[in-house]
Amino acid sequence: MAKFKCVACGGTYDDVLPDGMAYYHACPPEVIQHATFDNAGKLLTPEKRVPLEGARDERPTPGNLYVDGKSSIAVPNPEERGKVFFVESPPTIVSEGKGRTKI
Amino acid sequence: MATEQERNRGLGAYSTPGVDPKADPGLAKIITSAPEVKFRFHDLDPANNLYMTRDDIFQFDIANSLAGQFAGFDYRQLQPDGSIHRGAFGFFPTSDRLVNTFNFIPGEGFMLNVVLAAQSNATKRGQTFGGLRIKYGNIASGQTVGFLTCGYLAGTLNLVWPISPPAYQTDGPGFIRSITGTTPAAGAEISETVPTNARWRLRMFRTNLVTSATVATRTTTLFFDDGANLLWQNTQGPTQAASLGQSLDWSDLSIDSPVTASNALMAFMPQPILTAGYRIRTSTVNLQAGDQYSAPQYQVEEWIET
What we know:
The complex is a heterodimer of chains A (103) and B (306).
Chain A: E1 3-6, E2 12-14, E3 30-33, E4 36-37, E5 43-45, E6 48-51, E7 57-60, E8 64-67, E9 70-76, E10 84-88, E11 93-95, E12 100-102
Antiparallel strand pairs in A: 1-2, 1-12, 3-6, 4-5, 7-11, 8-9, 9-10
Chain B: H1 4-7, E1 51-52, E2 56-64, E3 71-78, E4 84-91, E5 99-104, E6 109-118, E7 128-136, E8 143-153, E9 159-161, E10 175-180, E11 191-193, E12 198-210, E13 218-225, E14 230-233, E15 239-240, E16 245-251, E17 257-260, E18 263-267, E19 273-275, E20 279-285, E21 292-293, E22 297-304
Parallel strand pairs in B: 16-18
Antiparallel strand pairs in B: 1-6, 2-5, 2-7, 3-4, 3-6, 6-9, 7-8, 10-22, 11-20, 12-16, 12-19, 12-21, 12-22, 13-14, 13-15, 13-20, 17-18
Protein backbone atom coordinates (compact mmCIF):
# COMPACT_ATOMS: atom_id res chain seq x y z
CA MET A 1 0.00 0.00 0.00
CA ALA A 2 1.45 3.37 -1.02
CA LYS A 3 0.26 6.91 -1.47
CA PHE A 4 0.69 8.66 -4.81
CA LYS A 5 0.17 12.06 -6.33
CA CYS A 6 -0.99 12.38 -9.91
CA VAL A 7 1.20 14.77 -11.91
CA ALA A 8 -1.60 15.81 -14.25
CA CYS A 9 -4.46 16.62 -11.87
CA GLY A 10 -2.65 16.86 -8.51
CA GLY A 11 -4.97 14.38 -6.85
CA THR A 12 -3.60 12.14 -4.10
CA TYR A 13 -4.70 8.56 -3.45
CA ASP A 14 -3.72 5.17 -2.07
CA ASP A 15 -3.15 2.43 -4.62
CA VAL A 16 -4.51 -0.25 -2.27
CA LEU A 17 -7.47 0.41 0.01
CA PRO A 18 -7.87 -0.91 3.57
CA ASP A 19 -10.16 -3.70 2.30
CA GLY A 20 -7.23 -5.07 0.28
CA MET A 21 -8.62 -4.14 -3.09
CA ALA A 22 -6.78 -2.04 -5.63
CA TYR A 23 -7.80 1.54 -6.35
CA TYR A 24 -7.41 2.81 -9.91
CA HIS A 25 -7.08 6.56 -10.13
CA ALA A 26 -8.54 8.34 -13.15
CA CYS A 27 -8.13 12.09 -13.58
CA PRO A 28 -11.16 14.32 -13.95
CA PRO A 29 -11.65 15.25 -17.58
CA GLU A 30 -11.31 18.99 -17.10
CA VAL A 31 -9.39 21.57 -15.14
CA ILE A 32 -10.90 24.79 -13.86
CA GLN A 33 -9.54 28.20 -14.65
CA HIS A 34 -11.16 29.94 -11.74
CA ALA A 35 -12.97 33.22 -11.92
CA THR A 36 -11.14 36.26 -10.60
CA PHE A 37 -12.67 39.15 -8.69
CA ASP A 38 -11.50 42.61 -7.71
CA ASN A 39 -11.39 43.81 -4.11
CA ALA A 40 -14.99 44.89 -4.34
CA GLY A 41 -16.07 41.44 -5.41
CA LYS A 42 -16.73 42.42 -8.97
CA LEU A 43 -16.12 39.70 -11.49
CA LEU A 44 -13.04 40.34 -13.62
CA THR A 45 -12.65 37.08 -15.55
CA PRO A 46 -15.30 34.38 -15.64
CA GLU A 47 -14.61 30.76 -14.79
CA LYS A 48 -13.52 28.58 -17.64
CA ARG A 49 -13.29 24.78 -17.77
CA VAL A 50 -10.85 23.29 -20.24
CA PRO A 51 -9.83 19.68 -20.97
CA LEU A 52 -7.08 18.35 -18.72
CA GLU A 53 -3.90 17.61 -20.63
CA GLY A 54 -1.97 14.44 -19.94
CA ALA A 55 -4.82 12.89 -17.98
CA ARG A 56 -3.94 9.62 -16.30
CA ASP A 57 -6.25 6.60 -16.11
CA GLU A 58 -4.84 3.63 -14.22
CA ARG A 59 -7.65 1.23 -15.02
CA PRO A 60 -6.47 -1.95 -16.77
CA THR A 61 -7.09 -1.73 -20.49
CA PRO A 62 -10.41 -3.43 -21.27
CA GLY A 63 -9.92 -6.56 -23.32
CA ASN A 64 -6.62 -7.53 -21.73
CA LEU A 65 -6.58 -10.94 -20.14
CA TYR A 66 -4.19 -13.58 -18.80
CA VAL A 67 -3.79 -16.95 -20.46
CA ASP A 68 -2.01 -19.56 -18.35
CA GLY A 69 -0.49 -16.77 -16.30
CA LYS A 70 0.73 -14.67 -19.22
CA SER A 71 -0.65 -11.25 -20.03
CA SER A 72 -2.30 -11.42 -23.44
CA ILE A 73 -4.70 -9.75 -25.78
CA ALA A 74 -7.33 -11.36 -27.97
CA VAL A 75 -6.70 -10.82 -31.68
CA PRO A 76 -9.33 -11.62 -34.31
CA ASN A 77 -8.38 -14.65 -36.34
CA PRO A 78 -8.30 -13.42 -39.97
CA GLU A 79 -8.79 -16.93 -41.28
CA GLU A 80 -11.79 -17.86 -39.15
CA ARG A 81 -14.36 -15.16 -38.64
CA GLY A 82 -15.70 -14.89 -35.12
CA LYS A 83 -12.73 -16.62 -33.57
CA VAL A 84 -9.80 -15.10 -31.81
CA PHE A 85 -6.35 -16.19 -30.82
CA PHE A 86 -4.35 -14.94 -27.89
CA VAL A 87 -1.11 -13.02 -28.29
CA GLU A 88 1.23 -12.33 -25.42
CA SER A 89 1.27 -8.65 -24.61
CA PRO A 90 2.45 -6.75 -21.54
CA PRO A 91 -0.33 -5.49 -19.24
CA THR A 92 -1.32 -1.93 -19.97
CA ILE A 93 -3.48 0.75 -18.40
CA VAL A 94 -5.89 3.00 -20.21
CA SER A 95 -3.63 6.07 -20.12
CA GLU A 96 -0.23 6.67 -18.52
CA GLY A 97 -0.70 10.42 -18.81
CA LYS A 98 1.97 12.51 -17.10
CA GLY A 99 2.61 9.80 -14.58
CA ARG A 100 2.54 9.90 -10.79
CA THR A 101 4.93 10.40 -7.89
CA LYS A 102 5.11 8.48 -4.68
CA ILE A 103 4.52 10.50 -1.52
CA MET B 1 -42.02 -81.10 47.28
CA ALA B 2 -40.17 -81.21 43.96
CA THR B 3 -37.10 -83.31 43.73
CA GLU B 4 -33.78 -81.97 42.62
CA GLN B 5 -34.23 -83.63 39.32
CA GLU B 6 -37.63 -82.12 38.85
CA ARG B 7 -36.43 -78.64 39.73
CA ASN B 8 -33.62 -78.68 37.27
CA ARG B 9 -35.39 -80.35 34.50
CA GLY B 10 -35.38 -77.13 32.51
CA LEU B 11 -32.65 -75.44 30.59
CA GLY B 12 -30.89 -74.04 33.61
CA ALA B 13 -30.83 -73.70 37.36
CA TYR B 14 -33.60 -71.18 37.28
CA SER B 15 -35.92 -72.92 34.93
CA THR B 16 -39.48 -73.27 36.03
CA PRO B 17 -39.98 -76.63 37.76
CA GLY B 18 -42.37 -78.86 36.02
CA VAL B 19 -42.18 -77.09 32.71
CA ASP B 20 -40.76 -79.13 29.92
CA PRO B 21 -38.13 -77.28 27.94
CA LYS B 22 -39.09 -76.81 24.37
CA ALA B 23 -37.19 -78.50 21.71
CA ASP B 24 -34.47 -76.49 19.92
CA PRO B 25 -36.45 -74.28 17.54
CA GLY B 26 -33.66 -74.20 15.05
CA LEU B 27 -32.92 -71.29 12.75
CA ALA B 28 -35.59 -68.62 12.08
CA LYS B 29 -37.52 -69.13 8.92
CA ILE B 30 -37.26 -66.18 6.53
CA ILE B 31 -40.73 -65.08 5.69
CA THR B 32 -39.96 -61.82 3.74
CA SER B 33 -39.84 -61.90 -0.03
CA ALA B 34 -36.58 -61.58 -1.93
CA PRO B 35 -35.99 -58.23 -3.75
CA GLU B 36 -37.10 -58.18 -7.31
CA VAL B 37 -34.33 -55.78 -8.38
CA LYS B 38 -30.87 -57.07 -8.90
CA PHE B 39 -27.81 -54.82 -9.17
CA ARG B 40 -24.72 -55.20 -11.28
CA PHE B 41 -21.36 -55.04 -9.65
CA HIS B 42 -19.36 -55.47 -12.83
CA ASP B 43 -19.39 -53.74 -16.25
CA LEU B 44 -21.07 -50.67 -14.75
CA ASP B 45 -21.91 -47.56 -16.82
CA PRO B 46 -20.12 -44.33 -15.86
CA ALA B 47 -21.91 -41.98 -13.46
CA ASN B 48 -22.32 -39.31 -16.16
CA ASN B 49 -21.78 -38.86 -19.84
CA LEU B 50 -19.03 -36.21 -19.93
CA TYR B 51 -16.41 -38.07 -21.85
CA MET B 52 -13.07 -36.35 -22.45
CA THR B 53 -10.91 -37.42 -25.36
CA ARG B 54 -7.17 -36.98 -25.50
CA ASP B 55 -7.61 -33.76 -27.49
CA ASP B 56 -10.15 -32.12 -25.22
CA ILE B 57 -8.97 -29.20 -23.14
CA PHE B 58 -10.38 -28.23 -19.81
CA GLN B 59 -10.54 -24.44 -19.52
CA PHE B 60 -11.49 -22.44 -16.51
CA ASP B 61 -11.74 -18.68 -16.34
CA ILE B 62 -11.53 -16.54 -13.25
CA ALA B 63 -12.07 -12.81 -12.86
CA ASN B 64 -11.09 -11.63 -9.42
CA SER B 65 -10.84 -8.39 -7.43
CA LEU B 66 -9.44 -9.67 -4.13
CA ALA B 67 -5.69 -9.26 -3.65
CA GLY B 68 -3.83 -12.44 -2.74
CA GLN B 69 -6.61 -14.74 -3.93
CA PHE B 70 -5.65 -18.37 -4.47
CA ALA B 71 -7.93 -20.68 -6.44
CA GLY B 72 -7.88 -24.45 -6.13
CA PHE B 73 -9.04 -26.85 -8.81
CA ASP B 74 -9.85 -30.50 -8.08
CA TYR B 75 -11.35 -33.19 -10.27
CA ARG B 76 -12.03 -36.91 -10.33
CA GLN B 77 -11.94 -38.84 -13.57
CA LEU B 78 -12.89 -42.41 -14.40
CA GLN B 79 -10.05 -43.70 -16.53
CA PRO B 80 -10.43 -46.27 -19.34
CA ASP B 81 -8.88 -48.96 -17.15
CA GLY B 82 -11.62 -48.45 -14.55
CA SER B 83 -9.47 -46.65 -12.04
CA ILE B 84 -10.42 -43.27 -10.68
CA HIS B 85 -7.83 -40.58 -11.10
CA ARG B 86 -7.82 -37.49 -8.92
CA GLY B 87 -6.07 -34.32 -9.98
CA ALA B 88 -5.61 -31.05 -8.16
CA PHE B 89 -3.69 -27.85 -8.62
CA GLY B 90 -3.89 -24.21 -7.63
CA PHE B 91 -3.08 -20.83 -9.05
CA PHE B 92 -3.05 -17.14 -8.19
CA PRO B 93 -5.42 -15.11 -10.36
CA THR B 94 -4.69 -11.40 -10.70
CA SER B 95 -6.81 -8.95 -8.69
CA ASP B 96 -7.55 -6.48 -11.48
CA ARG B 97 -10.82 -8.15 -12.53
CA LEU B 98 -9.30 -9.17 -15.88
CA VAL B 99 -10.11 -12.68 -17.03
CA ASN B 100 -7.48 -15.25 -16.07
CA THR B 101 -7.75 -18.32 -18.27
CA PHE B 102 -6.13 -21.62 -17.40
CA ASN B 103 -6.04 -24.65 -19.65
CA PHE B 104 -5.03 -28.22 -19.10
CA ILE B 105 -5.60 -31.58 -20.77
CA PRO B 106 -6.87 -34.19 -18.29
CA GLY B 107 -6.57 -37.08 -20.71
CA GLU B 108 -9.10 -39.65 -21.79
CA GLY B 109 -11.91 -40.69 -19.49
CA PHE B 110 -15.23 -39.76 -17.94
CA MET B 111 -15.25 -36.71 -15.70
CA LEU B 112 -16.98 -37.56 -12.43
CA ASN B 113 -16.86 -34.22 -10.66
CA VAL B 114 -15.01 -30.92 -10.77
CA VAL B 115 -14.56 -28.35 -7.99
CA LEU B 116 -13.29 -24.80 -8.29
CA ALA B 117 -12.79 -23.11 -4.93
CA ALA B 118 -11.49 -19.83 -3.56
CA GLN B 119 -8.94 -20.70 -0.92
CA SER B 120 -9.11 -17.33 0.84
CA ASN B 121 -11.71 -17.50 3.60
CA ALA B 122 -12.05 -13.73 3.31
CA THR B 123 -13.57 -14.03 -0.16
CA LYS B 124 -17.03 -12.51 -0.31
CA ARG B 125 -19.63 -13.07 -2.98
CA GLY B 126 -19.02 -10.60 -5.81
CA GLN B 127 -15.22 -10.66 -5.65
CA THR B 128 -14.27 -13.81 -7.56
CA PHE B 129 -16.18 -15.23 -10.53
CA GLY B 130 -15.28 -18.52 -12.18
CA GLY B 131 -16.38 -20.56 -15.17
CA LEU B 132 -15.64 -24.08 -16.45
CA ARG B 133 -15.75 -25.11 -20.10
CA ILE B 134 -14.35 -27.65 -22.53
CA LYS B 135 -12.43 -26.73 -25.66
CA TYR B 136 -11.18 -28.73 -28.54
CA GLY B 137 -8.11 -28.06 -30.58
CA ASN B 138 -5.38 -25.56 -29.95
CA ILE B 139 -5.12 -24.06 -26.48
CA ALA B 140 -4.63 -20.59 -27.94
CA SER B 141 -7.54 -20.70 -30.35
CA GLY B 142 -9.55 -23.78 -29.55
CA GLN B 143 -13.27 -24.06 -30.11
CA THR B 144 -15.56 -24.24 -27.10
CA VAL B 145 -17.50 -27.46 -27.34
CA GLY B 146 -18.97 -27.69 -23.87
CA PHE B 147 -19.92 -25.52 -20.96
CA LEU B 148 -20.13 -26.91 -17.46
CA THR B 149 -21.03 -24.12 -15.08
CA CYS B 150 -20.12 -20.63 -13.84
CA GLY B 151 -20.72 -18.57 -10.75
CA TYR B 152 -19.20 -16.71 -7.85
CA LEU B 153 -16.76 -18.30 -5.46
CA ALA B 154 -16.73 -17.34 -1.82
CA GLY B 155 -15.05 -18.54 1.33
CA THR B 156 -17.61 -21.28 1.85
CA LEU B 157 -19.15 -21.42 -1.61
CA ASN B 158 -17.42 -23.55 -4.20
CA LEU B 159 -18.23 -23.98 -7.86
CA VAL B 160 -19.02 -27.64 -8.26
CA TRP B 161 -19.90 -29.63 -11.35
CA PRO B 162 -22.32 -31.32 -11.80
CA ILE B 163 -24.14 -29.64 -8.89
CA SER B 164 -23.79 -25.87 -9.22
CA PRO B 165 -26.31 -24.31 -11.63
CA PRO B 166 -24.88 -21.61 -13.90
CA ALA B 167 -25.25 -18.08 -12.54
CA TYR B 168 -24.73 -14.85 -14.44
CA GLN B 169 -22.23 -12.34 -13.12
CA THR B 170 -24.83 -9.78 -12.12
CA ASP B 171 -27.24 -12.30 -10.57
CA GLY B 172 -27.83 -12.02 -6.87
CA PRO B 173 -26.27 -9.75 -4.30
CA GLY B 174 -22.89 -8.19 -4.89
CA PHE B 175 -20.01 -7.31 -2.65
CA ILE B 176 -20.47 -4.27 -0.41
CA ARG B 177 -17.43 -2.02 -0.50
CA SER B 178 -16.45 1.19 1.22
CA ILE B 179 -14.10 3.17 -1.02
CA THR B 180 -11.87 6.12 -0.22
CA GLY B 181 -11.45 8.04 -3.44
CA THR B 182 -8.90 10.54 -4.69
CA THR B 183 -8.36 13.74 -2.74
CA PRO B 184 -8.56 16.33 -5.50
CA ALA B 185 -6.12 19.19 -5.72
CA ALA B 186 -7.18 22.53 -4.29
CA GLY B 187 -9.75 24.17 -6.50
CA ALA B 188 -10.53 20.91 -8.34
CA GLU B 189 -13.67 18.82 -8.56
CA ILE B 190 -14.18 15.24 -7.46
CA SER B 191 -14.18 12.53 -10.11
CA GLU B 192 -14.44 8.79 -9.40
CA THR B 193 -14.46 6.17 -12.18
CA VAL B 194 -15.89 2.65 -12.10
CA PRO B 195 -12.99 0.17 -12.63
CA THR B 196 -12.58 -2.09 -15.64
CA ASN B 197 -14.88 -5.14 -15.55
CA ALA B 198 -16.84 -3.87 -12.56
CA ARG B 199 -20.47 -2.97 -12.12
CA TRP B 200 -21.47 -0.73 -9.22
CA ARG B 201 -24.69 0.15 -7.51
CA LEU B 202 -23.98 3.36 -5.63
CA ARG B 203 -25.50 3.41 -2.15
CA MET B 204 -24.08 6.51 -0.47
CA PHE B 205 -21.50 9.19 -1.18
CA ARG B 206 -19.91 11.67 1.21
CA THR B 207 -17.36 14.44 1.04
CA ASN B 208 -16.43 17.60 2.88
CA LEU B 209 -15.90 21.00 1.25
CA VAL B 210 -13.80 23.64 3.00
CA THR B 211 -14.13 26.98 1.28
CA SER B 212 -11.37 29.58 1.16
CA ALA B 213 -11.68 33.19 2.28
CA THR B 214 -12.51 34.32 -1.24
CA VAL B 215 -15.99 35.76 -1.20
CA ALA B 216 -18.28 33.70 -3.43
CA THR B 217 -21.35 31.53 -3.04
CA ARG B 218 -20.58 27.91 -3.88
CA THR B 219 -23.19 25.32 -4.73
CA THR B 220 -22.34 21.63 -5.26
CA THR B 221 -24.10 19.25 -7.61
CA LEU B 222 -23.44 15.51 -7.92
CA PHE B 223 -23.81 13.87 -11.33
CA PHE B 224 -23.15 10.63 -13.21
CA ASP B 225 -21.82 10.25 -16.74
CA ASP B 226 -20.86 7.31 -18.93
CA GLY B 227 -17.34 8.61 -19.50
CA ALA B 228 -18.52 11.11 -22.08
CA ASN B 229 -22.22 11.91 -21.76
CA LEU B 230 -24.09 13.27 -18.79
CA LEU B 231 -26.64 10.73 -17.56
CA TRP B 232 -28.12 12.23 -14.44
CA GLN B 233 -27.59 15.26 -12.25
CA ASN B 234 -29.11 15.90 -8.86
CA THR B 235 -30.62 19.18 -7.75
CA GLN B 236 -28.20 21.72 -6.45
CA GLY B 237 -27.22 21.35 -2.86
CA PRO B 238 -27.32 24.12 -0.26
CA THR B 239 -25.16 27.19 -0.80
CA GLN B 240 -21.87 27.54 1.00
CA ALA B 241 -20.19 30.85 1.73
CA ALA B 242 -16.50 31.61 2.22
CA SER B 243 -14.43 30.19 5.08
CA LEU B 244 -16.81 27.39 5.91
CA GLY B 245 -16.56 23.62 6.18
CA GLN B 246 -19.59 21.59 5.21
CA SER B 247 -20.19 17.87 4.91
CA LEU B 248 -22.11 16.82 1.84
CA ASP B 249 -23.96 13.50 1.94
CA TRP B 250 -25.86 11.84 -0.88
CA SER B 251 -27.84 8.63 -0.86
CA ASP B 252 -30.86 7.23 -2.64
CA LEU B 253 -33.16 8.41 0.11
CA SER B 254 -36.09 10.34 -1.16
CA ILE B 255 -35.42 13.40 0.95
CA ASP B 256 -33.33 16.32 -0.11
CA SER B 257 -32.78 18.70 2.75
CA PRO B 258 -30.01 20.12 4.88
CA VAL B 259 -29.78 18.60 8.32
CA THR B 260 -27.62 21.22 9.99
CA ALA B 261 -25.69 24.25 8.90
CA SER B 262 -22.57 22.11 8.54
CA ASN B 263 -24.07 18.95 7.06
CA ALA B 264 -26.23 18.70 3.98
CA LEU B 265 -28.19 15.58 3.09
CA MET B 266 -29.19 15.19 -0.53
CA ALA B 267 -30.75 12.52 -2.66
CA PHE B 268 -29.71 10.85 -5.89
CA MET B 269 -31.78 8.58 -8.10
CA PRO B 270 -32.80 5.22 -6.55
CA GLN B 271 -30.14 2.53 -6.78
CA PRO B 272 -28.10 3.91 -9.68
CA ILE B 273 -26.31 1.23 -11.68
CA LEU B 274 -22.92 2.28 -13.03
CA THR B 275 -20.83 0.06 -15.30
CA ALA B 276 -17.14 0.13 -16.15
CA GLY B 277 -15.96 3.58 -17.21
CA TYR B 278 -18.93 5.45 -15.75
CA ARG B 279 -18.08 8.34 -13.47
CA ILE B 280 -19.35 10.00 -10.32
CA ARG B 281 -18.46 13.68 -10.31
CA THR B 282 -19.13 16.96 -8.61
CA SER B 283 -19.86 20.23 -10.33
CA THR B 284 -19.50 23.25 -8.10
CA VAL B 285 -20.74 26.69 -9.01
CA ASN B 286 -18.18 29.39 -8.12
CA LEU B 287 -15.55 26.91 -6.90
CA GLN B 288 -12.48 28.93 -5.95
CA ALA B 289 -8.79 28.11 -6.32
CA GLY B 290 -8.31 27.72 -2.58
CA ASP B 291 -11.38 25.56 -1.95
CA GLN B 292 -10.65 22.00 -0.95
CA TYR B 293 -12.74 18.86 -1.25
CA SER B 294 -11.82 15.94 0.98
CA ALA B 295 -11.38 12.46 -0.43
CA PRO B 296 -14.87 11.15 -1.11
CA GLN B 297 -15.94 8.17 0.96
CA TYR B 298 -18.61 6.10 -0.72
CA GLN B 299 -20.27 2.75 -0.46
CA VAL B 300 -21.08 0.61 -3.48
CA GLU B 301 -22.39 -2.85 -4.19
CA GLU B 302 -20.03 -4.39 -6.72
CA TRP B 303 -20.20 -7.25 -9.20
CA ILE B 304 -17.67 -8.58 -11.69
CA GLU B 305 -18.80 -7.92 -15.26
CA THR B 306 -16.52 -9.16 -18.02
